[in-house]
Amino acid sequence: MRGGQYVQQSSLLSPGWSLGQVLTSMSSSRKKAIFRKFSRDWLAGYLAAADFVHAGRVEMLDLEGKVVALAVEDLKWICYVRDFNSGELNNPERLLRKTFAGRPRGEGLFVRARLKDGDLVEGLAANDRSLVASDGVFLTPPDLRSNTQRIWIPRDALEDLEVVAVIGGARKKPPPPAAKQDEAQETLFS
Fold it and tell me: The domain 108-167: what is its CATH number?
């Protein structure tokens, strides 16, 4: 395992929580993820799809089965990946294309995020309250064929978040004005 250091088990616990409560608070369904820090170190492990931030820490399960808490302010992003064995030691998330070449095809908010270290990442975010009411932003990356399927960027890592466009489905045409029922009825039986 590269980068990062393990946190003592006692420091994992939020005040008033037992170890059993921490373990049951983690989802039973965990996804493969790469945790990138601003120090360029990274960790590989498993993470719940949502609600994984508790008391300013991200609780993950490392490859050895240990619960590890990472401080949110140290994280640059978390990439949900298809495979841990990408063969690249410096870029295991294989996030080669960070910007769209043209207009995105999916639905949502086309956003441009500038991180504290100056890195620029574009993606599609959900067009709902999760963009403003959560600990971070979930993005669908520009290259869906890469190893990275989703990116979570902590709010602390963002310097600027710009909504470039709102991309939606085809607009529904308004229904044609309905004919008066009395007129339609009279001509029907004439």
Answer: 2.30.30.100
One fold for 9-80 and 108-167: yes
| Spans of all domains in the chain | 9-80, 108-167
Query: How large is the average pLDDT for residues 162-171?
Result: 81
Structure tokens at 74: 């140290």
Percent of the chain with pLDDT over 70: 75
Beta strands in 16-167 (DSSP E): 30-37, 42-48, 53-54, 57-62, 67-71, 75-81, 108-115, 120-125, 136-139, 148-154, 158-167
pLDDT at site 147: 87
Helix (H, G, I), strand (E, B) or coil at 46: strand
* CA–CA gap between residue 31 and residue 84 (Å, rounded): 11
**R_g (Cα) of the chain, nearest Å:** 23
Helix extents (H) in the chain? 9-12, 19-25, 181-188
**Pseudo-torsion of CA 65, 70, 74, 75, nearest 10°?**
60
- The domain 9-80 having CATH identifier 3.30.360.10: the answer here is no
> 76: burial class by Cβ within 10 Å (0-12, 13-18, 19+)?
buried
Distance from C-alpha of 35 to C-alpha of 41, rounded to nearest angstrom:
8
